[in-house]
Amino acid sequence: MLLASLVVPRLHFRKSARPHHHPAARVANVDVSRARDTHAETTVVVDPRSPRLLIAAANDWTLGVNSWVSKDAGGSWEADEAQMIAGLGCADADPALAIDQRGRAYLAVLGRTECTKSAPERVFVARRLNVATPWIPVTRPVAVAPERFKDDKPALAVDLGRNSMHRNRIYAAWARSWEDEEGIPSGAIVITHSDDGARTWSRLSSVSPATQLAFSANIAIAPNGEIYVAWDDPGNRGIWIDRSRDGVHFGADHLVAAYLPVGEECDVPGAAIPAQPHRCVGPNPTLTIDPNAPMQVQVTYGNTDDADDSQSVFLVAFDKTLRHVIIGRPAAQAGVRITPPEPKGSQADQFWPASAFDTATKRLWVCFYDTTGDRSRRGASYSCMVARDRGRTWLGPVRVAGVASDETQTGARTFEYGDYEGLAVSGGQAHPMWTDSRRLEGEREEVYTAALSEADVARAIKTPQHP
């Protein structure tokens, strides 16, 4: 069993003088989904050719998966009928998005060719020529498998590296699990790639060993085309990372951190917290790459801080060969907590973190749900913080959501906030995207977003505010 105590070094935070309630950023909250029924598990990307073009997607309990387009930097959104992807009986869940240098967009979903419970879920990847064109019909999964295999939570990434031999290559990774004759589960992270715009895919390669119960894959690609994949292993309670030069052959897995605990009462492996007691929360490791010399590979994740048994956000950094890079002092291979500690005698949870690196400003953004200010730890406000120096000094956090959400109230889905949220950054502007319950009575859980700059964060911290 991979367990480790969490050593928290002294990092630097710039925040308001009111420690019991984080300040609010004065930014507009935009309702993206604007449709009845629950939306969760959001993803958002920015077109690398233009920071004003964005695509988002989320689970939709009525339609399966839906997507939206913004042509004005997130100020307004139009639904573009991703649920109508021809050939799929059901586009069920877990959307992931990517855009290449030519503006071609890709959407990975779990789907079934027949909309029956007995039909196995497989990974499908739809494509579109640009944000103005419809999704091209997809009829075949990325990879076939016997029915006893289960696919879950795909991740997508496009090689945008200027020095890469495989520029615009698309990578898809996901968890593939199975049970033996005695019902004992095993699983591995598998990966494949496409060099022809998601028309055909390479044979599957294994990233992790089948001795793990791997889950929640995430991909990042270095400027030279090297591929990094992170995932968590609930069975052994560890977060892992590996790398490949060609997307086919992977080396030794490296332990990012141990995480704890795993609640037996959870619907999926995770930790039960007051804000999400049924679905529970997991680490959701997210990879970012700082390409500036020397290059760093950064992993953000959620974990239990054993100092007060609440959820916090942590960061581990590696060099390009996956050797640990020290962030703050002392070095902590179990991870450095980047969310500020709570005042003595109080508790709060920060969970479902998402991170993204802005190559234009050299800033690392991290956003998450935060229950700071609510003694019951049930009201969560989506919040963000930004690092100027590779995670040593942080500005924030500040609340981005204008209203705190409570997924334990009557009428909320037991799925709660889902399993992950979205974040895209480009040209000095961050676009967090989250599930929000402010319109629970009329439209159920909605998808919201905001456009946030570093100046917005600094302004919120300097402005006296009252909860």
How many β strands by DSSP? 32
Which percent bin holds the helix content?
Answer: under 10%
Structural class: mainly beta
What is the end-to-end distance?
42 Å
Describe this structure in words.
The N and C termini lie far apart (42 Å). By secondary structure, this protein is mainly beta. Helix content is 3%, strand content 42%. The strands form eight sheets. It has a five-stranded mixed beta sheet, covered by helices on one side. Strands 2, 29, 30, 31 and 32 form a five-stranded antiparallel beta sheet that branches. Strands 20, 21, 22, 23 and 24 form a five-stranded antiparallel beta sheet that branches. A hairpin with a 5-residue loop joins strand 14 and strand 15 (227-233). The protein is globular. It contains two helices and 32 strands. Residues 1-10, 15-19 and 329-333 have low confidence and may be disordered.
Write the layout of secondary structure elements.
Blueprint: E1 12-14, E2 30-31, E3 39-46, E4 54-60, E5 64-70, E6 78-79, E7 90-99, E8 105-112, E9 122-128, E10 150-158, E11 170-179, E12 185-194, E13 205-206, E14 215-221, E15 227-233, E16 238-244, E17 254-258, E18 271-273, E19 276-281, E20 286-290, E21 296-305, E22 310-318, E23 324-325, E24 336-337, E25 350-358, E26 363-370, E27 381-387, E28 393-399, E29 422-426, E30 429-436, H1 440-443, E31 446-449, E32 452-453, H2 454-462
Parallel strand pairs: 1-28
Antiparallel strand pairs: 2-31, 3-4, 4-5, 5-6, 7-8, 8-9, 10-11, 11-12, 12-13, 14-15, 15-16, 16-17, 18-19, 20-21, 21-22, 22-23, 22-24, 25-26, 26-27, 27-28, 29-30, 30-31, 30-32
